[in-house]
Every structure is written in structure tokens, then in C-alpha cells.
Amino acid sequence: MNGRPEVRITExxxxxxxxPDSDASLTSSAQDSFLVVIDTxxxxxxxxxxxxxxxxxxxxxxAPGTHTMGRSLQEVLIAQDPRETDELWRxxxxxxAMNGRRGAVIHAMSAVDMALWDIRxxxxxxxxxxxxxGPVHERMRPYASLQPVGxxxxxxxDSLCEWAARACELGFQAVKAEVTMSGPYAHSGLHESYDRxxxxxxxxxxxxxxxxxxxxxxxxxxxxxxxxxxxxxxxEAFDLYMIETPVxxxxxxxxxxxxxxxxxxxxxxxxxxxxxxxxxxxxxxxIAIAQPDxxxxxxxxxxxxxxxxxxxxxxxxxPHCWKTGVSSAATAHFAFxxxxxAFIEYLPPQLCVETLRKELAQDNIRIDGGAIVPPTAPxxxxxxxWDAVRRFEVG
Length: 395
Description:
Layout: E1 9-18, E2 32-40, E3 45-50, H1 54-62, H2 73-77, H3 85-95, H4 103-124, H5 128-131, E4 141-146, H6 153-169, E5 174-178, H7 194-208, E6 213-217, H8 225-235, E7 240-244, H9 252-261, E8 266-268, H10 274-283, E9 289-290, H11 299-313, E10 316-317, H12 325-336, E11 343-346, H13 355-359, E12 361-362, E13 367-368, E14 371-372, E15 383-384, H14 386-392
Helix pairs in contact: 1-4, 3-4, 6-7, 8-9, 10-11
């Protein structure tokens, strides 16, 4: 096509990975992974990752289709040109629409799309961000994404403060604290008052000082906007850059109420799939900061559309990423190609307990003076430890 040598997809594999020390009671999706590997007849292989239940994702990828509206992703891809990312996204979306359109199928598509862009970059000898339009930032600010450990209030608070202090020692100029000791995803079964949550936020702010950017993720803790506002009024004193997912994702009117009533910028979107869900969150939910996750929203192809939507509306992009080095690298490429992006979420291997984050893949992200510099290796630039893939594969 267009004078290019022919390249065709020969095989699409999905790997279900699970850390041997995983704990299903924890609220951390970095304990598992769904890794997609795409081979071509040019000898070039691409990798991608989805942040979704990996067994479900594997079914989306490879379960035999029985009609034209419910095909597997895999059968759409075989023998196709991997460089035709827009067309393959369209075919996967239409071919799986009765089963998908949102949710797990789109999340699985994210891993496929990521792998296709990895192949495109390797074939072109360019990093993915160049193919997305080229870097629009010379440097990108990462924030250390911190999830504490412990089963008591004191352990939780002290662990989070310790992580925050270590992040500053490593040169991070921004941190995001998970402060969730109540609600549907309360850490380790804790059930603490909102006043104690305020105490934790205050302790983290005291730990990092006034000059380090502080963000807080409460993981849908509050049942409604009124409850959220009763607490956020106290948190306005802590100079927060954003409050992440304060209420349920589908409570668009609640998000709009929060946006109109607190000085803290409201951020959401980590779970969303496709531009259409983000359109509702932006226009009806009135959020200030959109958080597409490349491994959930539909891969690079869809994430770039969401980024353009945010730019058109004057909104900020702070992409979500809570997975292994494969997704971290993908998020960095997306961020460098997105003018509205202000920060990149980064799960430092030195500041987490997740085995897969530490052992599955090296993202090769280089942090210099507290900022990430653009990747230079072709494709994603990720080094996957294939021994680790074999060691952690369970399906």
C-alpha cells in the first residue's frame, strides 16, 4: 500500500498473567496483566497491555465468533497490515459491537492497538510518539502514584507518608496519594471517618512540604456530591492539584455539581472506554481533568481522539496508568504527543509492592531532574522479560 513493502499479521497471542503473591482483597489491578503479542511476516513483533480482568480479555481476543456482529478481535486481525491502525480499530469495533462497544472488549482492544502501534514504530524506526504527531513537550512531569500498605489507620497513614517522603528523595516533584479508608474500595477493609481521611491528607502535605504538587485519589469513596463537598471544603486548605474519582463514574450530575462547588479541580475517566463515554463526562459531568487510560480507553488510536476533545474544550489531560512497564511506556508516548497533558501518572518500581510492575518489563523511561524526557527507541521501547511472562502465565 502506498509503495510500502507488504507486512501482514501472522499470529495474535494473549497471555494471562498473575503475580504469585496476589491478594484478591486488595484494590490494585497491577497484580495481574493481560499481555497481547502480535507477530508479523516481517519478523517484527509488537506488545500491548490491557488493564482489565485478563481471563475476560483473553475471551474477547480469541473466543470464536458465531456471526458478523460478534467476532473475536483475533480473527479480525489475521493477515491484515498492522500499520493500518485506524482501519483495524474500526473493524474490531464494528465486528465485536454486539458484545462490546464499551467495557471489557474495548479494554482488550486497547492492548491490541498498543501492540499495533509498537509494530508501526519498529517498522518505521521511530518511537510511537513521533507517529502520533511528534512530541509537543520537551519534558513531562511525572507524579509518583502511591498506594499505602497496612491494616490499621496508623499503618496506613504512616506508610503513605513514608512512600511520599521516599518519592521526594527520588526527585519526584509531584505525588498522588490514595486516601481511601471508606467506601466501596476501602483499603484492606478499613472503615474510618472522613475526619481521619482529612488527617491523612494533612499528614502527607506536611511530609512533602508546600512546594511539591499533591493530588488525592479517593476511588469513588463518597456516595454523592453533597457528601463529597462536606469533606472537600476542608481539603481546599491543602492546595490540591486535583481530586480523583470522588463519586461513581456514572454520576455525571454529581460530577457537574462538584465542578461548580469546589475550588479543587475534579478529575475522572480512568475506567472509561471510547470517546463517547468521555464526551458525556466532559460535557455533562463538567470535569476539569480527563484521565484516559491507554490500556482501557481503546489504545493510542482512541486516546488521541479523547485528547483532541479535551483540547477543544480547554480541559487538562492527566492520563491514568496503574499497570506494568508496558503501559507506563505507552502512557509516556501518549503524553508527549498530547499538548493538553500536564502530568503523567507513574508507579515507581521502588515505591510499590506489585511484583509484575517490578519484574515483567522495563519501561526504559528516563527521569532527569524530576522530569521525563521523550523516549528515543523505536516503537514503545519496552524490554519484556519473557522468562517472567512464562513464570507468571496462568492462562
